[in-house]
Design a protein that fits this description.
By secondary structure, the chain is mostly helical. Helix content is 65%, strand content 0%.
Length: 104
């Protein structure tokens, strides 16, 4: 138990046989950890916001400055891109949740 980060002195009210069985089950089937729970391969909200801002500004720079697109179509395409990515991420989140429910 100490190897897994538990203090054996604080465990009370459980039989040793039950404890051994539960620890064996948990150690033999560890929970898979999602390294990137947020979109854009981000693992925290500030990282996600910064990456989204960077990609949005890069998209606007490429279309407005390099391709000489007007601002309105550029913002419209940026909105459509963000909407598409949001729908994709909602689908991925639902798929992950259904996989977790099937395992349990």
């Amino acid at each position: 138990l100490r190897g897994e980060g538990f203090n054996p002195a604080q465990l009370t009210g459980i039989e040793k046989a039950d404890l051994v069985e539960k620890v064996f089950i948990l150690c033999s089937n560890p929970v898979e950890e999602d390294l990137y729970p947020l979109p854009l391969y981000s693992n925290c909200m500030p990282q996600f916001v910064l990456r989204a801002l960077f990609l949005g500004l890069l998209w606007m720079f490429i279309l407005c400055y390099l391709c000489r697109f007007p601002l309105a179509p550029t913002l419209g395409s940026l909105f459509l891109l963000a909407l598409g990515l949001a729908l994709r991420n909602i689908k991925i989140t639902k798929d992950k949740a259904s996989k977790r429910r099937k395992r349990q």
